[in-house]
Amino acid sequence: MEKEALNLKAFNMYGGFNESGNEYHILNTKTPVPWCNVMANERFGTIVSSYGTVYSYYKNSQSFKISNWCNDWISFKPGEMFEGIYDNNYNMVYGFGYSKVLQEDDELKKEMDIFVPSNEDVKIHRIKIRNNSKSVKRVKISYKLDAVMGVVKDINRNYILSRCEDNAIQIKNPYSIEFSNCIAYISVVAMSKEFKVNYISNKYKVYVEADILPESEEEFSIILGCTENYNDIKRIQDKYTTVQDVQNEYQNTLNYWNKLVVKNMKLEDEYLNILANGWLLYQTIVCRLFARSGFYQSGGAIGYRDQLQDTLALISTWPDRTRQQIIRNASKQFELGDVLHWWHENSGAGIRTYFSDDYLWLPYVLAEYVNRTGDISVLDEKTPYLEDKPMNGRREVYDIYRDSDKYDTVYEHAKKAINYALSRINEQNGLLKIGDGDWNDGFSNIRGESVWLTFFMMNVLDKFIYLTNIKFDFELGEMYQEKIQEFKENILKNTWDTDHFVRAFFENGEILGSYSNNECKVDLISQAWAVISMHGYEDVKDKLNMALKTADKYLVDRKLGIVKLLYPAFNNEDKNNPGYIRAYVPGIRENGGQYTHAAVWFAKAYFEMNEYKKGEDILKMINPIAHSDSKEKADVYMVEPYVVAADIYSNIEHPGRGGWTWYTGSSGWMYKVIEDYLADNKK
C-alpha cells in the first residue's frame, strides 16, 4: 500500500488519484461511508461501492430494481453478494465506465473488472485469477442476487419466479404492472474448460469453481442482464464466448466514456483540473442523465428543470444530447404554459405542480443552446402538448399524462413558458409569484413572490431576445426588453435591504431574507443572480458589489471551506413558516448548509463581475478534492473525493460533513462555469 500511495495524488490514507487523474484508487475500503461508482447506459445501470455492490436496475432505477437497493451506510447490505472475491481485503479502482476489484488470497491474485457496455442491457464482471504459487490452487467464487424485480423487495419477493434454462438463471416478476415481460438473467460465459458452473435458481446464485495450474492465469465472466426477449439471452451468451470478446467490449466501453467526458482543459489549479477533465462530465452524464440514481436516492424520474440544467454542461461537448433534452422537455408542457415537475418516461406518469421556475428552464437552455451552437433548426421542431388534467384546487396532481393532438414548435413552447410566467406577476410589487416554491423546493409555503425568480426571469428574457430576432419576432423582443426594465425598477424599488437583496415576500406581504428577520437574513442566490442578471447595468454596480460583499461576509465559511445557502438557518424563530425547509436540522442541506448548486452560482457571479480570482477561489474552496486530500479532512468530509456533493453541513455537530453525492445537478453547473470562465485561461 505504501509504495502505491506515494504515486497517488491527494492521497488521504483511503485512496487517491492516479497520475493522470482519471482513476481513483481505494487502498483502504473501510471508507467513512460507502464510496461509490455509477456505471450505466440509457437503459441499464449498476452502482458499486467500497462496501460492496449497491444494486442494479433495468429501464428505471426507481421502478424496476433488479437487485435490492440499500442506502443505510451503517448496516449496509449489498444487493449483489460475492464469495471468493470482493469480500475480504480487497482494493478498488474507479474510472469512467468501469470499476476494478483487486484481491489477493494465498498467492492467488484476483482482479474483477465491472462495466456496463454502452449498447447492451447487461453488466459484465470480468474475473481474472492468477496463481503465483508452485502448486495447483482451487478457486471457488459465487455471485448471488438479492432479487427485487420491482420497487421494493418486501412487496415483490413473493411474486418472483426463477428457473435454470440454457445455462442461465432466469428471473421474472409476472405480476409487475409495467415490467411483467422483463427477464433478468445471470450467466457465466467466456471461460475455459477448467471451470465448473453450478446455477441455483431459487437462490439466484451461481457458483464457479476451477483448479488453477501453477504460475498460470484463467479468466471468466459473470453477466447480469435484463431483457424482454428470451432470445436476447442466447444472443448475449454468443456475443461474449471468448476472453477476447469481453476484452473488446471492455475497451469499447472505455473508449466510449473517454470520448464523452475526457477533455483537454489546462487549468492552473491541479484539483480543478482533475475534476474538469473527466469527473464532472462523467458524474453528470452517467448519474444525472442515464441512471438518475445514486447511493442516497434512487429517483428514476426525469426532472423538468433538473435534466435541462444538466445538459447545459454538454452544449459544447455533446450538443445532440442537449438538443434531444430540449425537444423532450418541450413535449411535457400543458397548453397553459406550465409543465410536469418530473415524470417517468416508461409510464408517462408525472406530477403537475405550482413550482414557478420549472417551465422557465426551457427558454433558458434553448437560448443558450442556439447561441452557442448556431443550430436554429431546433426552434422549428414540433412536439405535442400534454392533455390537460386540471388541478381542481389541489396543490399537486400525480397522474398519467398522455400527449394531446395539438402540436407546436419548440420556439412556441418556449414562448408559452415565458408568457405563462409573465401572467403571474403581483401587480403591487411587480415581482413574480413563487407558487409552491422556486428553485428552492423547501420554500413550499411562502405563496407570495420570489425575488430570485424575478432575477432569473430577467436573465431568461435577455437571452431569449436573441431568438426573437432570429425568428423576426421583433415586437415580442421589444416587449421583453420593456419587461426587463420594469423588473429592474421594481426590484430596486422593493427588494433592497441596506446592503443586499431580499429573497422573497410572503403572501401577507412580509419579507424573507431581510435584516428584520431572525432567520434567513441573507440568502445566497438572490445576491448571485442579482449580479448574473444585472451586471451589465452601470447604475447598479455599487449595489451588486455590496451584495457580493454581504454574501461573502455572512455565507462564506473559509474555515469549513463552504458557502452557505442562507444565514442564519431556520429554527422556528420567525412567525412566518416558509415551508418544509424548516424540517431540516439547522445547518443541514438547504437549511443553512452549503447547497453546492448555489455555491457554483456565487462563483459565476464573481466571474460576471470580472472578479476572476474570487470566482476561482470559490470553486477551489468547494472542490471535493480539497475537502479530502488528507485523512483528517476525509474523516470530517466522509463522502467521495472525486464527485461533487449536493450539500455540505454547517451544523455544529457535523461541521464540514458532505451530504449526498453523485445525484446532484451541481456537477453540471460546476463544469459549465469552469468551461465558460476558466478554460483556455479566459481571464
Stretches where pLDDT falls below 50 for ≥5 residues?
A: none
What does the overall shape look like? globular
Residues in helix, % = 25-40%
DSSP strand content: 15-25%
Give the termini separation: 41 Å
**Secondary structure: number of strands:** 37
Q: On the 0-100 scale, what is the average pLDDT?
A: 95
Output the CATH homologous superfamily of the domain at 31-230.
Glycoside hydrolase, family 65, N-terminal domain
Main sheet properties: 10 strands, antiparallel
Strand order of the largest sheet: 1-2-8-9-10-11-19-16-15-14
CATH class of the domain at 31-230: Mainly Beta
What do these coordinates show?
It is built from 17 helices and 37 strands. With 683 residues, it is an alpha+beta fold. It has a domain at 31-230: Distorted Sandwich (Beta-galactosidase, Chain A, domain 5), CATH 2.70.98. Strand 28 (496-497) and strand 29 (500-501) form a beta hairpin. The two termini are 41 Å apart.
Which SSEs are present, and which pair or pack?
Blueprint: H1 2-5, E1 15-17, E2 24-26, E3 36-40, E4 44-49, E5 52-58, E6 65-67, E7 80-83, E8 90-95, E9 98-105, E10 108-115, E11 122-131, E12 137-145, E13 147-150, H2 153-156, E14 161-164, E15 169-172, E16 183-189, E17 196-200, E18 205-212, E19 216-227, H3 230-239, H4 243-261, H5 270-291, E20 302-303, H6 304-312, H7 319-330, E21 340-343, E22 349-353, H8 361-373, E23 382-386, E24 396-400, E25 403-409, H9 410-422, E26 432-433, E27 449-450, H10 451-470, H11 474-494, E28 496-497, E29 500-501, E30 504-505, E31 511-512, E32 522-523, H12 524-534, H13 541-555, E33 556-557, E34 562-563, E35 566-567, E36 594-595, H14 596-608, H15 612-622, H16 631-637, E37 647-648, H17 666-677
Antiparallel strand pairs: 1-2, 2-8, 3-4, 4-5, 6-13, 7-12, 8-9, 9-10, 10-11, 11-19, 12-18, 14-15, 15-16, 16-19, 17-18, 20-21, 21-22, 22-24, 23-25, 26-27, 27-30, 28-29, 30-31, 32-35, 33-34, 36-37
Helix pairs in contact: 4-5, 5-6, 5-17, 6-7, 6-8, 6-17, 7-8, 8-10, 10-11, 10-12, 12-13, 12-14, 14-15, 14-17
